[in-house]
Amino acid sequence: MTATTTAPVATTPVPTVKQPPARLRAWATRAPLLPALIFMVVVTQLPFVATLVISFFDWNALYPDARHFTGLENYRQVLTDADLRQSVWTTVLLTAAVVLASLVLGLALALLLDRKFRGRGVVRTLLIAPFLVVPVAAALLWKHVLYNPEYGLFNGLLHYVGGPQPDWISNTPLLAVEASLVWQWTPFMMLILLAGLQSRDQQQMEAARVDGASDWQIFRYLTLPHLRRYLELGALLGSIYIVQNFDAVFTITSGGLGTANLPYTVYQSFYQAHENGLASAAGVLVVIGSIIIATFALRVVSSLFREEVSRA
Amino acid sequence: MSAIAVQNRVRGRRKGAGLGLVAWLAGIVFFLPIAWMALTSFHSEQDAATNPPSFTAALTLDGYREFFGTGGGASPWPALINSAVASVASTLFVLLLALPAAYALSIRPVKKWTDVLFFFLSTKMLPAVAGLLPIYLFAKNTDMLDNIWLLVILYTSMNLPIAVWMMQSFLAEVPVAIIEAARVDGARLPTILARVVAPIALPGIAATALICFIFSWNELLFARVLTGVVAETAPVFLTGFITSQGLFLAKVCAASLVISLPVLAAGFAAQDKLVQGLSLGAVK
Fold first, then answer.
1. Which of A12, A144, A238, B146 is the most exposed place for a label (fewest CB within 10 A)?
2. How many CB atoms lie within 10 A of CB B114?
3. Which of B130, B202, B231, B29 is nearest to A291 (CA)?
4. Cβ atoms within 10 Å, residue A39
């Protein structure tokens, strides 16, 4: 239908404008892309290639003269290193727990905020706030103001009900880091899912209600399938940022008590131990892990994409 | 109206009020840490570090005075200014690079354009730590360490992929027919961009800029490794408080609040744009 009306416009040659040769036109179409592409290759891909090269050298920054090629020795060391395997596990646990918990909480909050009630705008503003606190500041807030065993708010409130006064960070270090991250990322998930809820087809919902569908049925068979793209988008973006989390681990526990994730471990092995070769090998392994996750994730995104294209 | 319908409606309204109350409760629970941080920042250090917490202690600006350096500590102003420069400059660079790219990808799609988009997003999945060491060594050998413009370049690369994605979906909203019509009327590319594309895509561009600003302002890892005294940013300044014990609680709270303020203000002012941007423009 639309093809018959738009096609002539596109194909009719415009007499006043001289058409440049096809090759030149192809370049003109690509040219706007080039600055961004070149910039990204230079700033992100070149350093990674350098990391790859350094990973094959035994190179401690404190003894630069002793630098020599060692082949895969760094990888062997990294893979057999118990601390590093621990930090791989920590990274997986941290990311999965935070993404899942904040998605579920975010969904619940989005469903609550999708209804009309008095002061909805105020409540939304209150809920968004944690996402807008600078991550280091948020981590400091949890470490000193909330978790502190002597004067933290949590134990202060427990005092009123006569509860125990635990040392939160020492007792459950990983959970303490996770809780602070869930607090920060739940608003992010809520915002994405709320946008999804508000883009539902209202007529379809109304029709289902007239047909006598219950709230649960509407949620299960209309809302949830519609939200799938938004849940996937939230999980993908959340994972990208939480896998790389450095601020919370660095601030709350300084990587101690089994909370060192991969970014913190790599940071530590080159910034504090000056082991350039080892740090690079660990970095390369992080990338390989990320590529595995990314391949899976990109397939998800490309399905998001297909839907968008087919709608257009 | 039947009696059953009336009954259902009343029940529905009562349930709605109940759920509204739950939403309010959730909002208060999530905001409580921030409210408590704000209250603590106005307490004296002694009142801040009490158990049980004091809700009625006298209010004072001492925490803020301490933070701004009148108490003899380091002034936070250089760090705040560095953060402003890094965030604003890198956001401008991102827009400068992402706009043409997104334009090429959305309005005049090149062959294999999805591949290019995926390349951009895949760089986002390359963990920052994977390139940190070469960048550090490069900066050290070229005397770029502790230079705010190095951070500007890195923050640009950090936000560019997401920005291209967001703006691509915003620009895809501009109907091609309008652009064709303008071209037939003899308008050249700059005119088309300024008069046709920009007005439609402007809210999306604003959302993109806001998100780039927030992520740059918040960044810690690069800033921590690559800056020292001169180019220190606000988050790096905050890391000075990591081990502070008890005595400086009010100061820590004041510092955290002041440094979060630009992001809080921008985010509150542009809540809807934030939603649109975070969903990568998937929501219209």
1. A12
2. 14
3. B130
4. 18
Distance CA B220, CA B215 (A): 10
Amino acid code (one letter) for B159: N
Residues 6+ apart with CB under 8 A from B29: none
Check: CB of residue A191 under 8 Å from CB of residue A230. no
Beta strands (DSSP E) in B198-270 are none
Please determine, for residue A224, whether its predicted confidence score (pLDDT) is greater than 80. yes
* ipTM score assigned to the predicted complex: 0.86
- The stretch A253-257 carries a mean pLDDT of 82
B270 Cβ neighbours under 8 A, 6+ residues apart: B206, B207, B210
Which stretch of DSSP H or E encloses residue A284? helix A276-311
Q: Is A287 on the interface with B (CB under 8 A)?
A: yes
Per-residue pLDDT tens for B85-115? 999 999 999 999 998 888 888 876 666 667 7
Instruction: List the single residue in A127, A144, A243 with the smallest CB-CB distance to B26.
Output: A127
Q: Do B276 and A230 touch (CB under 8 A)?
A: no
Q: Which of B120, B133, B191, B215 to mutate to test the interface with A (most CBs of A within 10 A)?
A: B133
